[in-house]
Each structure stands twice: as structure tokens, then as C-alpha cells.
């Protein structure tokens, strides 16, 4: 199992701080801070919710949800656990695990209820490095100083460490390389093939096709030389060679539209790279998401990519919700309200059960499609997206 280097922030009032007293402000753009930390090598974010009233707590829950939706790495959360619903809210916001102190496991009824309901991976332990090591099978993270990191990561029961030095200036990949020499496995970025084996052009350049790591949307085409490739590997930020300026450039350095590398593959001839990235903002200098926004021609075809079909259908439903159309069945459901929508979802689920008894598959395909449509109406009514669903499924 790879050991994790986890960055820590304290949140309140939509701001991030480096201390629990909230005296050292990091930023009021918390989501992008978390994206950048994970992009440059942090294996997760440990969020301390320091709210002291219900309003602040609910506001922080919304912020945590935004972080979890946009951050490509695991998010761990701790805060004041007064009741079981506090744990549930954190997990439903997208947290990988809710972390509590060891004494809370023994003494808090709410924490014990959370463990019983969600398990020991979803409710784990965060402990101070000076207070010993938890010895049971709970998911365990250690908060320690820099001198203790290696010693704690060598412990089998420790999944990762939190340390103040894991900030935007920290060299995560370099540190992970040192850990690997001590026999500690981490999610280090390292190429399986040396750049010298790539087939480059006469200028030592190789083309890179860049795609979105979630949607596979093609974003742009650029070029790398050996220096740019090595910088991409070591920093986690996509770095290219500009043929027009004849210099190395980090994508997003001036615009803020960074690309954080998730994976790079090479084709069979070793002369083209395919990069999957976490794109911040627009990839194109024109402000478009992708550089490939000008269609030259298009033949009609039926889209069969499941997520694209679901997204297209959902967009139509959302458009009906925002711009009602007379005679629309979708608007009829929205007008009747949640009880009618739920009734239809229940009816369609029953139709699936009945159709499943039929040996022919055609009927059940129709009923499942009908059910999914009504579920999408329910999702639109409750503000849930397909990305929310796929993100949740990917964590299971």
C-alpha cells in the first residue's frame, strides 16, 4: 500500500488558514489551493473544520463539498462531532474519511455510531505523533513534525502522515524519491521509459496530445523536449517547449490555467505522448475550454458514450426546469413537485421488476431507460449531477 503525504488546512468563513487559531491566512480561494496542492504531489488534503456555530458549520460543509468535487485526490475531514449527523454530512459532502481522536472512539456515542454505520475506513483516527500508535484495524493517519515522518511511515498501521511542511513550496516528488530509497512506497511520479528512448524530431521534440482526465475531451496539442518532460514529471505541472519562442513554458504560469498531470502514455512507435490532465480553466489561449472548437464538417451519428448521453439528457431536463415549455411532460413533473416525481420513480422501479421476469431483454431495456429518465428528473429537482454520482461510485 502506498503511504500518503497529506497537506493540512483549517477552514472557516470560506477561507483557509495554516493554524487552528485562524491567525495565518493562506487564501480565500480554498478550492484552487487544494487543487494545486494535490496537483504538485500531495496525496490528499486534511481539512480541519473549526466552525463554532451551526451557520459556520453548514457553510464549511458546502465548502468541503466544493473541494471534494473539484479536487482529484482524497479529502479527509475533522471537526467537532456532536452527533452522528455531523459525520454523515462530512461523508456525504465527499470526504474519503472523517478523522477523530482516539479518545473520541472510546467515549463518543456519535463516533461509535458513525463507525457502526460506515465502517472503520470511513471513520478513522488522526493522532499526534508524540502520543503513540493506534494498534487496531482503523484507518490511521499521524500528525507529526518533519523529523518524525520517515519513522511513522515505516509503521505498517500508519496509512499516511500530516505535516506542516507539506505546503505549496514543498518538493513532494523529490521527498518521495528519498522515501523510496528507505523502502517506503508512495505514489511517486516516475517515467517507466527514459526520454532517450522516445523518437523525437530533428529538434529533440515530441508532440503531446492533452486530454481531460475525467471526460477524455481533447484539449490541445503541444510539444516537449527532454527538459520539459522531466520538469513535468518532477513538478506535476504540464511543462512544454514553445517552438515559436524557443523556450520552456509551464502551462498556466501567466494565466493561472495550470494543467496538473494525471498520467502520460506513449504510442506504439514511441513518437507521440498522450497526457491526461486536471485542467484548470481554459486550455486554449482564446478562452475556450479546448483548442479544438472549430468544426470543419460533421456527419450525423448517434452518440453512444454513456456519460455523454446521460449528460445530454440531463442538460435537456435542466433546460426545461429553467425555461418551461408548454406541453412538456418534464415540466409537468416539476410543476407537480417532489411527491409526484417520487411516485413515478417508484412506479418505474416496479416496472423494471415486472419486466425482468420476461425472458426477452427488449422490455427491460425500455423500462430501465424510462426509470433512468425519471431518476434524472429527481436529480435535477434535488440539484444532483451525474458527476456527483460517478464520483461517489468511484470511491466505493
Task: For this entry, give a set of tags.
alpha/beta, 4-stranded mixed beta sheet, 38% helix, globular, single chain, 396 residues
Question: What are the SSEs and their pairings?
Answer:
Layout: E1 4-12, E2 15-17, E3 25-27, H1 30-39, E4 44-49, H2 54-70, E5 74-78, H3 84-92, E6 97-100, H4 102-107, H5 109-118, E7 123-128, E8 140-143, H6 149-153, E9 160-162, H7 172-181, E10 206-212, E11 218-224, H8 226-235, E12 239-242, E13 247-250, E14 259-266, E15 273-279, H9 306-322, H10 329-336, H11 338-356, H12 361-382, H13 386-394
Parallel strand pairs: 1-4, 1-9, 4-5, 5-6, 6-7, 7-8, 8-9, 10-15
Antiparallel strand pairs: 1-2, 2-3, 10-11, 12-13, 14-15
Helix pairs in contact: 1-2, 3-5, 9-12, 11-12
Amino acid at each position: 500500500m502506498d503511504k500518503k503525504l497529506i497537506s493540512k488546512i483549517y477552514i472557516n468563513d470560506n477561507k483557509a488558514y495554516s493554524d487552528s487559531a485562524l491567525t495565518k491566512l493562506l487564501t480565500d480561494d480554498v478550492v484552487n489551493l487544494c487543487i494545486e496542492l494535490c496537483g504538485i504531489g500531495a496525496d490528499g488534503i486534511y481539512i480541519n473544520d473549526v466552525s463554532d456555530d451551526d451557520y459556520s458549520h453548514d457553510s464549511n460543509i458546502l465548502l468541503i463539498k466544493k473541494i471534494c468535487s473539484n479536487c482529484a485526490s482524497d479529502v479527509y475531514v475533522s471537526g467537532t462531532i456532536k452527533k452522528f449527523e455531523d459525520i454523515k454530512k462530512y461523508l456525504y459532502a465527499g470526504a474519503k474519511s472523517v478523522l477523530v481522536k482516539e479518545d473520541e472512539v472510546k467515549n463518543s456515542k456519535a463516533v461509535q455510531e458513525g463507525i457502526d454505520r460506515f465502517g472503520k475506513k470511513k471513520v478513522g483516527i488522526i493522532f499526534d505523533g508524540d502520543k503513540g500508535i493506534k494498534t487496531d484495524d482503523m484507518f490511521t493517519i499521524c500528525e507529526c513534525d518533519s523529523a518524525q515522518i520517515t519513522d511513522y511511515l515505516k509503521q505498517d498501521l500508519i496509512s499516511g502522515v500530516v505535516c506542516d511542511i507539506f505546503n505549496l513550496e514543498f518538493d513532494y516528488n523529490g521527498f518521495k524519491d528519498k522515501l523510496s530509497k528507505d523502502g517506503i512506497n508512495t505514489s511517486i511520479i516516475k517515467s517507466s521509459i527514459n526520454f532517450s528512448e522516445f523518437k523525437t524530431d530533428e529538434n529533440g521534440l515530441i508532440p503531446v496530445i492533452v486530454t481531460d482526465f475525467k471526460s477524455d475531451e481533447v484539449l490541445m496539442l503541444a510539444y516537449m523536449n527532454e527538459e520539459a518532460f522531466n520538469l513535468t514529471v518532477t513538478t506535476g505541472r504540464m511543462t512544454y517547449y514553445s517552438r515559436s519562442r524557443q523556450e520552456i513554458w509551464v502551462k498556466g504560469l501567466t494565466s493561472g490555467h495550470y494543467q496538473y498531470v494525471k498520467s502520460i502514455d506513449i504510442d506504439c512507435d514511441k513518437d507521440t505522448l498522450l497526457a491526461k490532465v486536471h485542467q484548470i480553466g481554459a486550455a486554449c489561449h482564446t478562452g475556450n475550454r479546448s483548442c479544438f472548437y472549430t468544426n470543419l464538417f460533421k456527419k450525423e451519428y448517434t452518440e453512444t458514450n454513456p456519460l455523454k448521453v446521460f449528460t445530454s439528457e440531463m442538460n435537456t431536463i435542466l433546460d426545461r426546469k429553467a425555461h418551461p415549455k408548454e406541453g412538456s411532460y418534464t415540466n409537468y413533473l416539476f410543476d407537480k413537485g417532489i411527491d409526484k416525481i417520487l411516485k413515478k420513480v417508484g412506479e418505474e422501479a416496479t416496472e423494471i421488476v415486472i419486466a425482468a421476469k420476461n425472458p426477452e431483454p427488449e422490455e427491460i431495456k425500455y423500462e430501465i431507460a424510462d426509470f433512468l429518465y425519471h431518476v434524472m428528473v429527481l436529480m435535477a429537482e434535488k440539484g444532483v449531477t451525474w458527476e456527483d454520482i460517478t464520483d461517489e461510485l468511484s470511491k466505493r
